[in-house]
């Protein structure tokens, strides 16, 4: 798929490009429009390189991001600091697309075949570089978002525990030491969560429905009372929207 990065005669920087940029910066909207139209193939090529796939006008968000970035480049270009407007514009487009990928992380849930970059020319190597940079940025964004979600969930869970007179630190201390005991307590929590009468009792009374439980499980009342805080905590996870904590419980079974 080398056509992704093929050269176009429209992409070369014309001699009057810098002058047109200055006129556009001065408020000449017609010149700005002409610049964007003339270099649309360049914008498409740059967007394709970063995305690692062919992008189409009117169909792909990357094109819209690229066009807005090119327009931004017109406003920000400084002839005193940059010799080539297109080099500057390319950098702006790539940065804005990477920002876009960070926000729209689902872009990289699709498998983009690396065969798209099989040609060993400089453009493809640069395309791979920016593809990998964008992919890493998205992965870092996803990891940070996941960590933030887990942190927020722990905070909400801790507040919910306090409604039942349980602290998170205390929960760690009272957790059953033996795996079989933990599994039995989790099974009890699952029974409560799956029974409307018992779960309503728990949420309203803030206590285990011991009498109802004794009819459902073959565990002594003494054991249920000893594991009360742990069972309550697991039940709260099961009946509330603590998705990350639920995953830990599901793995334990």
Percentage of residues in helical conformation: 55-70%
Q: What is the H-and-E element order?
A: HHHHHHHHHHHHH
- In total, the number of strands is 0
End-to-end separation: 48 Å
Gyration radius, to the nearest Å? 29 Å
- Tell me what portion of residues adopts beta-strand conformation: under 5%
Description:
The protein folds into two domains: 2-142, no CATH class; 163-252, no CATH class. Helices cover 68% and strands 0% of the residues. It contains 13 helices and no strands.
Question: What is the fold's blueprint, element by element?
Answer:
Layout: H1 17-25, H2 29-38, H3 40-51, H4 61-76, H5 85-103, H6 122-162, H7 168-174, H8 179-193, H9 196-205, H10 210-214, H11 221-226, H12 228-239, H13 243-252
Task: List the keywords.
single chain, 253 residues, mainly alpha, 2 domains, 68% helix, disordered N terminus
In short:
Helix content is 68%, strand content 0%. The chain has helices at 17-25, 29-38, 40-51, 61-76, 85-103, 122-162, 168-174, 179-193, 196-205, 210-214, 221-226, 228-239, 243-252. Helix 1 (17-25) crosses helix 2.
């Amino acid at each position: 798929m080398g056509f992704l990065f093929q050269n176009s005669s429209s992409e070369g920087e014309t001699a009057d490009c810098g002058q047109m940029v200055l006129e556009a910066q001065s408020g000449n909207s017609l010149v700005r429009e002409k610049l964007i139209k003339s270099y649309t193939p360049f914008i498409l090529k740059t967007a394709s390189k970063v995305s690692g796939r062919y992008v189409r006008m009117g169909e792909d968000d990357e094109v819209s991001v690229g066009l807005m970035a090119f327009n931004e480049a017109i406003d920000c270009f400084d002839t005193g600091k940059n010799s080539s407007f297109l080099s500057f514009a390319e950098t702006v487009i790539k940065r804005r697309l990477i920002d876009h990928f960070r926000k729209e992380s689902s872009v990289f849930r699709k498998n983009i075949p690396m065969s798209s970059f099989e040609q060993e020319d400089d453009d493809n190597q640069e395309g791979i570089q920016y593809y990998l940079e964008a992919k890493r940025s998205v992965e870092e964004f996803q990891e940070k978002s996941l960590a933030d979600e887990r942190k927020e969930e722990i905070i909400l869970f801790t507040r919910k525990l306090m409604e039942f007179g349980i602290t998170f630190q205390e929960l760690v201390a009272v957790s059953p030491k033996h795996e079989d005991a933990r599994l039995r307590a989790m099974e009890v929590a699952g029974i409560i969560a799956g029974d409307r009468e018992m779960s309503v009792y728990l949420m309203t009374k803030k206590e285990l429905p011991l009498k109802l439980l004794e009819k459902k499980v073959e565990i002594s009342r003494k054991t249920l009372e000893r594991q009360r805080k742990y069972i309550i905590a697991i039940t709260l996870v099961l009946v509330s929207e603590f998705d990350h904590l639920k995953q830990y419980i599901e793995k334990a079974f």
